[in-house]
Amino acid sequence: MSGDRPLRIGLVAGEASGDLLGAGLIQALRERCPGIEFEGIGGPLMQAAGCRSLFPMERLSVMGLVEVLRHLPGLLRLRRQLAGHFLARPPDLFVGIDAPDFNLGLERRLRAAGIPVAHYVSPSVWAWRRYRLPRIARSVDRMLTLFPFEAEFYREHAVPVRFVGHPLADMIPAEVDAAAARRALGLEPGAPLLALLPGSRRGEVTRLAPSFIGAAAELARRRPGLQFAAPFATAATRALFEAELGRHPEAPPIRCLDGQSRELMAAADAVLLASGTATLEALLLRRPMVVAYRLAPLSYRLLRRLVRLPYYSLPNLLAGEALVEERLQAAVEPVTLADDLERLLDDTPRRERLAQRFAAIHEQLGGDASGRAAEAVLELLGR
Q1: Taking a C-beta distance cutoff of 8 angstroms, is the pair 334, 327 a contact?
Q2: Do domains 8-165+367-380 and 178-365 have the same CATH topology?
Q3: What CATH number does the domain located at 178-365 have?
Q4: Mean pLDDT, the chain, whole residue set
Q5: Which top CATH class is 8-165+367-380?
Q6: Rounded Cα distance, 157 and 154, in Å
């Protein structure tokens, strides 16, 4: 970096969770280095924090092995365009945020050209495809992990790493006022509340909505007075869910919300949700949950041959034990889900134990995660 030129950092995030992390990192870096500039790919949060997005982030938001194959030509073309941009106008440092299948290839090219590289959010190399470790070591100068078990794995394999924690653990307070959350959402204060979160992507909602709505219908039959609500990240996913709801005349009223997923989980007595970042939010909010997931059938058949883990949800991975119920593929069935949720609603001692374990994990993950990530990034520049 020249003495009179502002520090420039390249960033690429591929989906909403990465956009959140990137925005926190940008803000923490700005506090430490006023005048710093950012460009690459980011969503609305990163753009609001000051990142110039060269392409829409939605072009990277593709999940599942089969789905990625269909979009592969466009993703490869986009990566070539980004590499050309950053090689022609090199940043002082590049940070790839999650999206490893896209970012690691870009990072390897930039690092080979002498640009320092950090990767923020570990690929799940500890779970499957461990053969990627040499590629990761060639692609990054430092891996920044959200969870402590990931950092331990990289240290064992001699990859430079820093555990920074998760910004959500700093954003979500230790104590949450469920009654206030209900009032803010206009929900009935006295009736038990079940939150339904069938995912943030269209494919997730399409695969999970029928069983989630069926579970709500079964619980409403067993427990009159139970209220239901579901939040949606986009108008498109809400429309998919409401269309499915119209095909279930036996379903109870389900209040649909635009966004407000965290507020709804804070208000809820229990949560039924898709596996993903939302499960971490539910943990940090101390909410008992049942985690469900369905992949496209071919993606699942391929993955089940490769993944060797006892659990797939973040709460169980962080705890190292089966704290919460997990249902996958054919087990995502209305009566099974209703049984799981009813046990949670009735078992007060279990709910209290879950809250205690969730509180301990919350403390472990918090402590200015974005600030620690910013410091790890600046160390790579000798600052």
Answers
A1: no
A2: yes
A3: 3.40.50.2000
A4: 91
A5: alpha beta
A6: 5
